[in-house]
Each structure stands twice: as C-alpha cells, then as structure tokens.
Specification:
Blueprint lengths: L1 H11 L5 H8 L11 H12 L9 E7 L1 H4 L7 H12 L2 E8 L3 H14 L2 E5 L10 H8 L4 E3 L1 H10 L16 H7 L3 E3 L10 E2 L9 E4 L3 E4 L3 H15 L12 E7 L3 H15 L5 E5 L7 E7 L2 H14 L3 E3 L12 H8 L1
Parallel strand pairs: 1-2, 1-3, 3-8
Antiparallel strand pairs: 4-5, 6-7, 7-8, 9-11, 9-12, 10-11
Helix pairs in contact: 2-3, 5-10, 6-7
Length: 341
C-alpha cells in the first residue's frame, strides 16, 4: 500500500507538461475545436510571443462569402493575393473559400492564425445581417467588438450619402445608423497596442484593416478595395521579409512544343537536381495551343539563368517573357492537344 502511495506522490510531483502551464496562464491556449492541448502547445506559445512581429515566411488567404460558393460572385481576390505574395517572396500555402457561417469562420481563423505568419481574409464586413466576419473572428479569440471612434469619424467625413437615404442623420439613432456602425465595430484586444490592431492604409478610405491576433488581416471583399488596401499594407510587411528589399521569388518561363509525357522523366531528374538550391520545376499544359510551359522558380536567379540553355535543349524549346508569346495565329489546334499530353 505504502509503495503505491509513494508512486502516486512521485507522479504528482513531476513537472506539469507545457500545455498545462500555458492553459493555466492563458485560457485561450487550451482546446481549439477538438484538438488536444498537447498538439496545440507550440501554436499557443507562438501566439503568446506576440505572433505577428517576427519574419513572414508563410501566408494564407480566407475568402468568406456564400455568394462565392453559390457561383454568384467570382473570386479574384485570392489570385491577386497570390501574385502579391509571389512578388514579395512569401510562400502562400493555403487558399480557402468558406460560407458566411460563424462556426466555419471561427475554426478557420484559429487554424490559419496558428499555422501561418500572414493571414488575409476577404469579405463579410458590410452592414447587413450576413456580414459576420468581425463578430466571428472576435469570438475566435475571445475579444469584444468595440466601436472605433476614429474609423467612425472617418466614415462620417468620407462617406457619400446614398440617394435612397436623402434624410440620413449621423447624429440621430436609427436602424440605418446602427447598420453603418457595424462596419467600424472591430475586434479589439486591450493587451495589444491599438495602432497594431487598426491600420489605415489610405487617407482617402475610411475602411481600416483590422488586425487580429497579430497576423490576421481583415479586408473587404470588394476587389478594388481589397487590392488597394492590400497594396497599402506593403510598407508594413516589407521589414518583416527575409528579403527586406522585396525582390521576392523569380520565375523563368520556357516554351516547349513537346508533350508533357515526353519530358516528364527529364523534369523529374531536373527537379531532384535543383531542389537543394531552392529551385522548383513546374510543367503546365496549354490545352489547344501549340506549346506547353516549363517553369523554374526560385531566389537564386544566377543559378536559374545558368540552367536555361540546358533546359531549352532538353525540351526543344526557348525562353519566353510571357506565356503564349510564341503562339502561332491560325495554327493547328490538334497540335496543341498532342503537346498537352
């Protein structure tokens, strides 16, 4: 009996696992949608270190909206973000499209914030009932929604009255005013500097970028606004890149008349050869065209340039500036079908 008691005492005297200490110090570092604390301890520690201040290596994009999933709206924002990341040398790892569903947004926001250095969301921040991005992401990180007075003042100053609301009064309580205020009621973490959470990237826009948990950037879904505000974030992002000058990744295009299956073995060998240099080899069929495209992508442009003559010879092609520049007008479309495979 005493032996069992001694074993129990020794067991209880052992140091607690890291995740237990974290959960006790911070309730938000505990369970996340069924994931056990032991699997989320490293991510919780990343959040507690002030996630969003370190170097940016990876990124993710979350497109929110029933209209995208229903085919009513075509998503162009993720493509713009992909080009933005590529130009800066940021490794875009994931793009997701989800519904205007609070549980979906909560789960995705937590997971993406945990897994990637830079997260951008698009959509769901308007005045209507289905615009629930702010409230959902606030819930994801146990934050209150607070009226941002500066954003509200900018809204009043820069917004133009809608023809359907000729008698709208900014000072008189109304359903319309409450709806407008929803767009400037933002998730606010009192433990973080406010200037790090609400960012105005254009003096001509009242819409702020709401930054949550240090790395989630909430942007509108309107493509012109999304693009303008994303570009406005660039000065804040550049200092956190491994390449502060923002030269980013380079891409070399080589057009080939050969079928993918005919060059597959060579490209496999080439990919293995250049992997240690951080270069990726890609192959892209162009259905109905006379040529396919081989790409070299990486940062070491001198090394990549040295590969061009070899690749051109192996695939019987030539380097091009843009895909399709060597297409022949009125060519045989069947040739392109053959080249594709």
């Amino acid at each position: 009996m005493f032996g069992r008691l001694n074993q129990l005492v020794r067991h209880l005297s052992r140091p607690l696992p890291n995740y237990v200490h974290l959960s006790a110090a911070n309730p938000r570092a505990g369970l996340v949608h069924g994931v056990t604390p032991s699997t989320t301890s490293s991510s919780a520690m990343a959040a507690e270190r002030g996630h969003g201040k370190g170097l940016i290596h990876t990124a993710a994009c979350l497109i929110i909206g029933d209209e995208v999933l229903g085919g009513k709206t075509v998503d162009t924002n993720s493509a713009y973000f992909a080009k933005f990341c590529f130009s800066l040398g940021i490794n875009l790892k994931r793009i997701e499209v989800i519904a205007d569903d609070e549980d979906e947004i909560v789960e995705a926001a937590r997971r993406m914030s945990r897994n990637y250095d830079l997260v951008v969301t698009s959509g769901g921040i308007g005045p209507t009932h289905d615009d629930i991005t702010y409230q959902s992401i606030a819930r994801a990180f146990n934050l209150p929604l607070k009226l941002h007075e500066d954003a509200f003042a900018r809204m009043k100053q820069l917004s133009k009255p809608h023809p359907s609301q000729p008698n709208f009064d900014w000072e008189k309580p109304s359903a319309a005013l409450a709806a407008k205020k929803r767009m400037v009621e933002l998730p606010i973490d009192d433990s973080r500097p406010l200037e790090d959470q609400v960012v105005f990237v254009d003096e001509k826009l009242w819409v702020p970028v709401s930054v949550v948990n240090g790395n989630i950037h909430i942007l509108p879904g309107v493509p012109s606004l999304f693009q303008s505000m994303l570009d406005g974030l660039k000065p804040r992002i550049l200092p956190r890149l491994t390449d502060p000058e923002g030269k980013g990744v380079q891409r070399i295009l080589i057009s080939t008349p050969m079928a993918e299956s005919a060059i597959a073995e060579y490209l496999t060998q080439l990919a293995a050869k250049v992997e240690s240099k951080g270069v990726k080899v890609g192959s892209y069929p162009r259905w109905g065209k006379q040529s396919n495209t081989v790409t070299l992508v990486g940062r070491d442009i001198e090394y990549m340039e040295s590969l061009v003559p070899e690749v051109e010879k192996a695939v019987q092609g030539r380097r091009v500036s843009v895909e399709g520049e060597d297409d022949v007008e009125g060519g045989d479309p069947e040739a392109g079908k053959l080249a594709s495979g």
